[in-house]
Amino acid sequence: MGMHQNFPHGRSMGRKSGGGSNDDDQNNDNLEMKGLMDALTKRDQEIKDFCEHAKKEIKETGSMAEATKQSLELLAKEGSQIQERLTALEQKGARRGKPESKSRTWGQSVVETDSFKSMADGRQGRTGRIEVKAITSAADSAADLVVTERLPGIIAQPDRAATIRDLIMPGRTTSNSIEYVREKGFTNNAAPQVEGQRKAESNLSFELATSNVRTIAHWIPATKQILDDAPQLASYIDGRLRYGLTYVEEEQLLLGDGTGQNILGLIPQATSYNTGLNLAGDTRVDAIRHAILQVRLAEYRASGIVLHPTDWERIELTKTNDNAYVFANPTSGVQPRLWGLPVIETTAMPEGQMMVGAFNMAAQIFDRENTTVEVSTEDRDNFINNMVTVRAEERLAMAVYRPESFVVGAFPDTTDATAGA
Questions:
Q1: Which of 160, 218, 349, 379 has its CA 20 to 30 A from that of 297?
Q2: Does one domain contain both 376 and 261?
Q3: For residue 383, what are the domain limits?
């Protein structure tokens, strides 16, 4: 999606194009993005229909048909491809329109609006608003911070790359809650029968689950003089506020306990690792393979592994007796993989634990509102103190359709002294 700027008076203001060809390109991109959004909406409805069909199959036959599984996997893959194309178009739109082909950042989009300029000139006290649709890593996003006798840029704290969201099937909602039916338990007593005798009885139960849309938000105060220092305001919006939301979002998706305004995360809903699968001499790599099997026995295929960076380092440093690395290539920068699955390392994952799951099928994120940034002088005594308030927030919910398809547990003690994993 392109950047959509909302103002109190209901106007939508965009950048003036420098030429007809740019207008044509932008119009074409807008049409394509609309088509992609329509395709996402259609895909979400198809997934819902297939889920209903799958529940009917499970109820009637005790398992999901392989064709249904394959169709769901294909829909998830198509959705990821559409999302990737949308992201590419959004980033293209963010780069369009500045002199010398410079990209506009979120902050620059805010400070270039009429609403913001009116507020900076004292003609308007209300809010300038922008809905953030995509992240742009434009090279010029901090270049204007260079001023006389000042070092260029801002030395910021290191950021943690957020990756859990990328694993989970995306979706959107216009409601404040998501209701869905999920399988609670299945006792399969199917067995060869003797004619004339009572047949074996199996048990299949369901439960209605609700996932409420939650809001993640924070704000920062700033002096009114910052309104005259547009690059500094852009730094506020482009940097810490957006990152702060992403940081907490990842912790919520993994660890949220569902109480109060917390999201009910993956780990609290996941199935415990079956330690009965452990064998004498098992390494951490073996334990992960056991967890993959546990997911497969729940009738889903694992799509990712989540580890704390410390645990992934221990696995990567595993060597043979002649000091050759087993899993790592120090000269290669390829995506970490283990047992054919991508390894996602994040400090949001508790150290010493592993998580394996069918992230692309057994859970879904529903975005109610993308990151929204608002700047206002009308907050408490801002006006008399020459202050402004900058606020960022997002709204989302997450549904976990099959808790058995996420396995989490602690690594067993390694008894093989020759293995560093």
A1: 349
A2: yes
A3: 159-185+203-421
